[in-house]
Each structure stands twice: as C-alpha cells, then as structure tokens.
Specification:
- 43% of the residues lie in helices and 15% in strands.
- By secondary structure, it is an alpha/beta fold.
- It has a 7-stranded parallel sheet, sandwiched between helices. The chain has a two-stranded parallel sheet with strand order 7-10.
- Helix 2 packs across helix 4, helix 4 packs parallel to helix 6 and helix 9 crosses helix 11.
- It is globular and about 65 Å long.
- 47% of the residues are buried.
- Bound molecules: nicotinamide-adenine-dinucleotide.
- Nicotinamide-adenine-dinucleotide (NAD) binds next to helix 1, helix 4 and strand 5.
C-alpha cells in the first residue's frame, strides 16, 4: 500500500510514518514544509529505508501537491500537516488559517483531481484520512465525554481552523464523493514531541532546573494518549474505517495539568535527581486566554467497530516518555538551543505590544 503522509516531520506524523514503514510494510511519501515544528531528525530511523520517500513542500502549493500525487500514485492520504500549537495561534492566527484551512482545501482539491482519474477499482479503494483534534468540540464541564455527534464549538484560533478543515473534508466526501474519513484525537504525548508542548517543556525545564510554568490553577483536564497508540488507530481508521464517518480517538486517561506536572517531577526526582525536589520549580502563571477547562473522549465507536484499544496507560506511557527525553538529548538539544528555548507564548498583551 502506498500512503502519502502530510506533516510527517512533526510529532504524530513521524510516529505514523515509523509505524507504516516499520510495522505494516507500507510505502510512504512524506510531504512536509519543514516549519519550525518539522524536523527530519524525527524520521532518522526510517529515512534510509527503501519504502520511505520525502518531499519538502507546502500543502498550500497546488502544483507541488499535484506533482506529489502524480509521482507517487498513493492508495491513501493521511493528512496531518498543520499549525498545531494553541498558544502560537493566539499570538498569530494567520499561519493557522493558511495551512489548516487553505492548505486542507488545496490538498482536498489535489486529491480529488488525482482520485477522479483513477480506474474504478483503485478509485473505490482510495482513502483520504483527515486527522483532527478533540479541541473542535470546545470545552466540557465536570461530566460527559465528546462523542462523534457532539456539536463543534471551538475556542481558539487553532481549534477553529481545525474545525473548518474538518467541515471541508466531510463536505468533499458528500459533494464530490471523495472517500474521506475524519479522526478527532485527544492530547498526544511521547517521544519526538516538540518542546513547546506541556509534557516535553516540563521535562526539559525540570532537567535544566528552570521554572515549571502551570497555567491558571493547573486544574484544566486533558485526556492523554500515547502517540504510538494514535498511530495504530490512524492506520486502522484509514484502512478499515467507514467512508464519510468521524472517529474519536482517546486513551481514557484524564489528568489535571498539575497532576501531570507533579508526576513528571516525581519521575525526574528518581531518574535525574537535582538535590532538591523538582516540584519546588512549579510556578503558577497567568492562564491561557480562552483556555478550555476539560476534554475527554468517548472512543467506543473506534473500539467496537475497529477493535482498537490503547496499549499504554498514562502511568506506563509517561515513564517511557521521560526516559526517552533523558536518553535522546541529540534530538532535543538543537531545538532548545536554536528553535525554541522555553519562553512563554500566546499572552495577549504581547500581541497588543506588537500591534497585532
Ligand atoms: N499533538 C496533539 O496532541 C494532537 C492531538 C490531536 C490531533 N492533532 C493533529 O494531528 C496533526 C499533527 O499534529 P502534531 O502534534 O504532530 O503537529 P506538529 O506541529 O508536531 O507537526 C506538524 C507538521 O506539519 C508540518 N507543516 C506545517 N505547515 C505545513 C504546510 N503548510 N505544508 C506542509 N507541511 C506543513 C510541519 O513542518 C510539521 O512537520 C495536526 O493536524 C493536529 O491538529 C494533534
């Protein structure tokens, strides 16, 4: 099977590509613009594999997308390319609208052009999996879970741009018959996670004895999924999911942010002691504007229809993750030194100062 994966120099796409090349013998073409979040080092273990190819291109570039489809002749697309960090979307939404909305539109159109010229058998078998987030559903109160039927109610420029892209993808299925499926996943964590996101930021700041920022009171709740569990789910959905459907993906691992940070501190105390408890470094900082209180996924459709189940619990996955960062300084050191060193992003008065 030939699978075109967009955004696979990023966190989840690289895990998906390692899975496709290493576990299911697929042929993979990665299409990635290599923004600040794209890193070819994340694909190092498969970059020399004969079933792996890479092209640096922007999904907004229609001729480049047409060339990728024509040259590679994929059986499926897994579309992960996106601007993905909520805090950056608060400081500057333009790239989010451009890549997440316009880029998804361009990719859908390129896929449609390619797909409509396929012979009947390949046309029937073709799949376009649009990979999205649970953040499109907005915020939950103390109870309840997001189902596939939960109405969209996005709070941030990031989640709004993803929500728009989900609608485009489903509309391309209904209007043009493009074989589209949409997945909505909860927060991922694991190896190769860019150090601006909560878990890697806390691990690396902790390791360096720097402050550990916790937004608001740290009571916001996310439903954490180990990235390799997401990769397996995406392959199942792309190959066996029903057309035109949405599938929620989540690990049934709800945790408050402060509990995540505290657990990482305990693990660092054990694996990388610094002479004082890492929890001493915790600092409560001004909350993120529009910060959703709670996300939690009902993944029963994916579990019952496709037989998927998360293999990692948060307790097992977080130990692996902390260990991975301790053992893989080669991967994160250049990012911390040259791309992002841990400063606060997405504070509104910064926007005001910049006239934005
Ligand atoms: N990280 C999560 O917890 C999470 C949860 C659910 C869904 N998702 C979704 O999964 C996908 C991947 O997320 P991630 O965390 O791996 O993101 P990431 O930021 O780590 O990676 C995004 C990748 O997309 C590439 N990219 C950005 N703009 C591009 C463009 N215009 N053209 C081509 N490539 C471009 C970047 O270079 C990067 O390699 C996103 O669509 C995101 O919305 C993420």
């Amino acid at each position: 099977m030939r699978i075109l994966v967009t955004g696979a120099a990023g966190f989840i796409g690289s895990a998906v590509s390692r899975y496709l090349v290493g576990e299911v013998d697929a042929e993979v073409l990665v299409v990635d613009k290599l923004t600040y979040a794209g890193n070819l080092a994340s694909l190092k273990t498969i970059s020399e594999h004969p079933r792996f190819r890479f092209v640096q291109a922007d999904i907004c570039d229609r001729p480049a997308m047409d060339a990728a489809f024509a040259g590679f002749q994929p059986d499926a697309v897994m579309h992960l390319a996106a601007e993905s960090h909520v805090d950056r979307s608060i400081s500057g939404a333009a790239d989010f609208v451009q890549t997440n909305l316009v880029g998804t539109f361009v990719l859908l159109e390129a896929a449609r052009g390619y797909w409509s010229a396929l012979d009947a058998a390949r046309k029937d078998a073709f799949r376009f999996l649009h990979v999205s987030t649970d953040e499109v559903y907005g915020s939950l109160g103390e109870d309840g879970l997001f189902a596939e039927t939960t109405p969209y109610d996005p709070s941030s420029p990031y989640s709004a741009s993803k929500a728009g892209a989900d609608h485009l993808a489903l509309a391309w299925g209904r209007t043009y018959g493009l074989p589209v499926i949409v997945s909505n996943c909860s927060n991922n964590y694991g190896p190769y996670h860019f150090p601006e996101k909560l878990i890697p930021l806390i691990i690396l700041n902790g390791l360096h004895g720097r402050e550990l920022p916790v937004y608001g009171q740290g009571t916001n709740i996310r439903d954490w999924l180990y990235v390799d569990d997401h990769a397996r789910a995406l392959y199942l959905i792309a190959t066996r999911g029903r057309l035109g459907e949405k599938y929620n993906v989540g690990g049934r691992n709800e945790r408050r942010n402060i509990d995540i940070v505290s657990r990482i501190c305990e693990l660092l105390d054990d694996m990388a002691p610094r002479g004082a408890p890492h929890a001493d470094l915790i600092r409560y900082v001004a909350d993120r504007p529009g910060h959703d209180q709670r996300y939690a996924i009902d993944a029963s459709k994916l579990e019952s229809e496709l037989g998927w189940k998360a293999q990692e619990t948060f307790d097992t996955g977080i130990v692996k993750t902390v260990r991975w960062y301790l053992d893989n300084e080669w991967w994160w050191r250049p990012l911390r030194d040259k791309v992002y060193s841990g400063e606060r992003l997405g504070v509104l008065n910064d926007v005001a100062k910049a006239g934005g």
